[in-house]
Specification:
Number of strands: 23
Largest sheet: 7 strands, mixed
Bound molecules: iron/sulfur cluster
CATH architecture of the largest domain: Alpha-Beta Horseshoe
Radius of gyration: 23 Å
Strand order of the largest sheet: 18-19-16-15-14-17-20
CATH class of the largest domain: Alpha Beta
Distance between the termini: 17 Å
Shape: globular
C-alpha cells in the first residue's frame, strides 16, 4: 500500500491525474512476489489489458514491484505489450520511464540492484487524511528460508532519525493524527548506524510530536525484540497498546528450518513481558502452516503456542513455494490436502480465541478513530473505525446524534463481540460522544478541495493535456491483482 501511494505521488507530481471512472491512459500494476499466485494473477491481468490497449491508442502499461524485480525481462517476453518494467529500488523513475517509452516508441526495462533514493523521499499521495505510513528502513538482514524479501529488497538500510521525524511532523501538519512506522524488521532499526536501541528512542521521540495521537509500527522480529522497546511502548502515551509479532511456527524444529533464530519459549516470554507492562495490549501474529518437513507433532506445537499466546488475531498462511527461496527446494514438501486440513484446524482455534478475547471487551469504553472507509450502514446505522488497540469497531450513530467525520474520535461502550470485530450499539440512543479532531478538519478541507476539481463531461474530466491514470473500466471486469482471501485471514 505504501509503495503504491508513493507511485501515485510521483505520477501526480509529474502531472498525471487519477482516471476516476474514465478510461485510463496509464495503468500501473505494483506487484508483490510474496503473495501466492502473484505471477498467474499478473499475467492474467496483463492478458486482459492487452485487448483494452488495442482499443485505446496511446495507452501505456507499467509493471513494478518485487515480482518485476524478480522476473525482469520475463515480463516483456511474456507480455510484449507492456511499456515499462521497473523494480523495487527505482520507483521514483516511473514518470521518466513512461516518458522515455513514449518518446522512443519501445518498452523500457529498468531494474536497479540497490536503492538510489530512499523511497520515503519520493512524493507520496496519502489515501487517508488521518493516518499515514512512514518507512524507517527497507530491506532485511535476516535470511528466513521461506522469504523472497532479502533477495528482492536487499540488505537493511536505515533512514536517519531526523528525516523520519521530519516526515512525521509534515504529515501531522497536514492533518494526520496516526502514523505507522514501517520496516521489514523495525526493531533492528539502527543496526546500520550502530545504535541498537535506536528503535525505542525513535518511538519516544515520535511520542513528543505535538498533535500526533497514535503511533503504531510493523513488523518487529522476535529474535531482536528487546525490553527497551517494551519500556518505550509502555512509557509513551502515543504508542498504541498493540503489537504485531510474527510467530510463523510454534515448533522449534520448524523455526530452525525456517532460519528464525528465536524459539517458542522466548516468543512466549516476550508476550508475557509486553502484557506485564501493557495489560490491554492486543497482540496479533503471522503463522505459516505446512512448511516443508512439518510433521503432525510440529503442527501440534503450533496449536499449543497459539493456545497459550492468546492472539487477538492472526494472519494464517498456507505454505507455498516461492521460487528463489531456500525452502523451495527443500525435501518433504507437504501435500496440499494435509496443509489445508491443518490450516482449517488452526483457523478454527484462532477464531475461537479471537472471539473469546473480543468478548472480554464487552462493557469496556473505547476510543475509536473513525475510518475514512466508513459509510453508514443503512440498516444498522453504524459507522466503523479502529480502537486504540487496533480492533475494528462498528458503532451505532443514534438518530439524533451528530455524525462524526473520518478522523474524528468517538468514545463508545462495547455492546457485543464477534470473532473479527466489536459492536458498540447505543443502550439509550443518547448522542454519540464525539471529539472533533484536526484530522476531521483535514478531511473537511480535502472534501472541499475535491469539490473544486474541474467540471466533468460525463465521467471524463474536461482538462486538456492531462494524462489519466488508473485501471481501465471499459468492457472489462477488473479483478484485483491480489486476492485478499489468498490463504490469508
Ligand atoms: S525477517 Fe521478515 S523480511 Fe526478513 S527474511 Fe525473515 S520473513 Fe523475510
Amino acid at each position: 500500500m505504501h509503495d503504491s501511494e508513493r507511485l501515485s505521488g510521483s505520477l501526480e507530481a509529474a502531472g498525471y491525474v487519477a482516471a476516476a471512472g474514465a478510461q485510463a491512459d496509464v495503468v500501473v500494476i505494483n506487484t508483490c512476489a510474496v503473495r501466492e499466485n502473484a505471477d498467474n494473477k499478473l499475467y492474467g491481468n496483463l492478458g486482459m489489458l492487452a485487448s483494452v490497449k488495442r482499443e485505446h491508442e496511446g495507452m501505456q502499461i507499467a509493471v513494478g514491484g518485487c515480482l518485476a524485480q524478480k522476473d525482469k525481462n520475463v515480463i516483456l517476453e511474456k507480455a510484449p505489450w507492456v511499456d515499462v518494467v521497473f523494480g523495487t529500488h527505482n520507483m521514483g523513475s516511473l514518470p521518466a520511464l513512461l516518458e522515455r517509452a513514449r518518446h522512443n516508441g519501445e518498452a523500457q526495462l529498468e531494474i536497479l540492484e540497490s536503492l538510489d533514493v530512499f523511497p520515503s523521499t519520493l512524493p507520496t499521495k496519502r489515501e487517508s487524511t488521518h493516518s499515514g505510513w512512514v518507512s524507517i528502513s527497507v530491506g532485511c538482514n535476516n535470511t528466513c528460508t521461506f522469504c523472497i524479501v532479502p533477495a528482492l529488497r536487499g540488505k537493511e538500510k536505515d533512514r536517519r532519525p531526523g528525516d523520519i521525524l521530519a516526515e512525521i511532523v509534515a504529515m501531522v501538519d497536514d492533518g494526520a493524527i496516526e502514523v505507522t512506522l514501517l520496516g521489514q524488521n523495525v526493531n533492528s532499526y539502527g543496526v546500520e548506524f550502530g545504535d541498537r536501541q535506536a528503535f525505542g528512542k525513535l518511538l519516544r521521540a515520535a511520542g513528543t510530536i505535538e498533535g500526533l495521537e497514535r503511533v503504531r509500527f510493523t513488523s518487529p522480529h522476535p529474535a531482536a525484540f528487546t525490553d527497551d522497546v517494551i519500556d518505550a511502548m509502555a512509557e509513551t502515551d502515543a504508542v498504541m497498546p498493540q503489537l504485531h509479532m510474527p510467530l510463523q511456527s510454534g515448533s522449534d524444529r520448524v523455526l530452525k528450518a525456517m532460519r528464525r533464530s528465536y524459539r517458542s519459549e522466548k516468543f512466549l516470554g516476550i508476550l508475557e513481558r509486553v502484557r506485564a507492562r501493557i495489560p490491554l495490549a492486543a497482540i496479533s501474529t503471522d503463522i505459516i502452516v505446512g512448511f516443508p518437513g512439518e510433521t503432525e507433532e510440529d503442527f501440534q506445537e503450533t496449536l499449543r503456542v497459539v493456545e497459550l499466546a492468546r492472539f487477538a488475531s492472526a494472519f494464517t498462511f498456507q505454505y507455498s513455494i516461492r521460487e528463489g527461496t531456500p525452502a523451495a527446494t527443500m525435501p518433504d514438501q507437504i501435500p496440499k490436502a494435509v496443509v489445508q486440513e491443518r490450516y482449517e484446524r488452526l483457523t478454527a482455534l484462532q477464531d475461537r480465541i479471537s472471539w473469546e478475547e473480543n468478548q472480554k471487551l464487552v462493557g469496556h469504553t473505547v476510543n475509536v478513530l473513525v475510518g475514512a472507509e466508513g459509510k453508514k450502514d443503512a440498516s444498522t446505522h453504524r459507522l466503523s473505525g479502529r480502537a486504540e488497540d487496533s480492533r475494528l469497531v462498528h458503532f451505532e450513530v443514534p438518530p439524533h446524534s451528530d455524525i462524526p467525520r473520518p478522523g474524528d474520535v468517538v468514545t463508545v461502550v462495547i455492546s457485543d463481540a464477534k470473532p473479527f470485530h466489536l459492536i458498540a450499539d447505543s443502550a439509550d440512543h443518547s448522542p454519540l460522544a464525539i471529539r472533533r479532531t484536526r484530522a476531521g478538519d483535514a478531511w473537511d478541507r480535502a472534501e472541499a478541495d475535491s469539490c473544486g476539481v474541474p467540471a466533468t463531461v460525463g465521467s471524463v474530466p474536461s482538462v486538456p493535456g492531462r494524462v489519466l491514470l488508473g485501471l481501465p473500466t471499459l468492457r472489462v471486469s477488473t479483478a484485483p491483482i491480489y486476492d485478499p482471501s489468498d490463504g490469508e485471514r
